[in-house]
Design brief:
Length: 351
């Protein structure tokens, strides 16, 4: 299969929308930009089309997907009930980077939900994504458009690297805005439970809803044994670069001191350090690759750059990656969730 790449001439380029919608309607796969990361989309009501996503990604069959919708009316057709708290979240955060889990209606194939009675749904804020869904006339099942387990794609080039020859079309809408996947909130329990942090923070949710539980394994680095995960990212290793990755948490000067020591101890290794604006000058033992993820005063910038930084390490074929840690507050929670999984739970604490 030859994969076509089309660049958007406008956020709602009619020619690209028409072509993408035709592929979706015919049971094919389209990679497209959202505000979070690039998604790999198929008709979410067609089990054969959804099966192609699993095949293209090499995705485990018990890892559920997220359905993307273009209107609240579409949601009514897909779920059995919408709690008041969910409607409040829709009013505040939709369209945007919040996924909510509901009890599904029977028209949603088991393949989308990995056999569960629940379905994860969100309405993206990206104008192209919503226009594609509307033109397709169906909810679009769309996990991240990468090989399963690799860093998520925030640029069309990342998608092409993983999906060339496996899918019909990649829509190039430039770099994504948020850079990490959506927040996932389970609305089938009381109080609602945060299953994955993202662009909508726990603090945002608590301010609106009051009481919000947090999955106790949410920030655990090593994958937990979850028999039936409700949300993508709960069961399997995610976001991992090719090289071994180690996360350092603590006082920033001590972190840099420890990293400098380890660089010196490994003179024959190609080492990458993922640092920040505030710490770049602290690395006196210069690594093979020193990447500035952004300023700690602008955590959205760091979230935007994480996956691109990890993929840059892959491109440079490094042997080791050392990454600075962050606070678990606000957007830092989503950042640390991704970094812990990328590092497979390998953390140097107490510095």
């Amino acid at each position: 299969m030859e994969t076509e790449v089309l660049q958007l001439k406008s956020p709602t380029d009619p020619e690209v929308i028409e072509k993408g919608a035709m592929i979706i309607k015919n049971g094919g796969l389209v990679a497209f930009p959202t505000e979070t990361v690039y998604g790999l989309g198929a008709n979410g009501l067609d089990p054969k089309a959804v099966a192609k996503i699993y095949e293209a990604k090499g995705r485990p069959s018990d890892n559920p997907m997220i359905l993307h919708i273009s209107s609240q009316e579409m949601l009514e057709e897909l779920v059995r009930e919408i709690p008041k708290e969910a409607r409040d979240c829709m009013d505040m955060f939709w369209p945007g980077p919040l996924t909510m889990i509901f009890y599904k209606k029977d028209l949603i194939p088991d393949k989308v939900c990995a056999g569960l009675d629940t379905v994860a749904i969100r309405m993206p804020s990206d104008p192209f994504a919503r226009a594609l869904i509307q033109a397709s006339g169906v909810p679009i099942a769309a996990p991240s458009a990468n090989t399963s387990g690799r860093p998520s794609p925030t640029k069309a080039a990342h998608v092409l690297e993983d999906m060339a020859g496996k899918i019909e079309l990649i829509v190039d809408g430039g770099p994504t805005q948020v850079g990490i996947e959506s927040t996932v909130l389970d609305m089938t329990v009381d109080p609602p439970m945060l299953l994955r942090p993202g662009g909508v923070t726990l603090e945002d949710l608590k301010e609106l809803l009051g009481d919000v539980d947090v999955d106790p394994a949410l920030l655990g680095g090593k994958p937990k044994e979850v028999l039936h995960p409700k949300s993508p990212g709960q069961k399997y290793k995610h976001y991992a670069p090719k090289a071994d990755c180690l996360l350092f948490a603590g006082n920033l000067k001590n972190v840099a001191k420890e990293v400098n020591k380890r660089i010196k101890e490994n003179p024959n290794k190609k080492i990458a350090v993922l640092a920040t604006e505030e710490t770049m000058d602290l690395y006196t033992e210069k690594p093979y690759l020193l990447i500035n993820m952004g300023s700690r005063d602008h955590m959205e910038e760091i979230a935007h750059n994480i996956f691109n930084s990890l993929r840059e390490c892959d491109e440079e074929d490094v042997d080791l990656i050392f990454v600075e840690g962050f606070s678990f507050q606000g957007m830092g929670q989503g950042i640390m969730n991704r970094l812990l999984k990328a590092c497979g739970g390998k953390v140097v604490l107490g510095l």
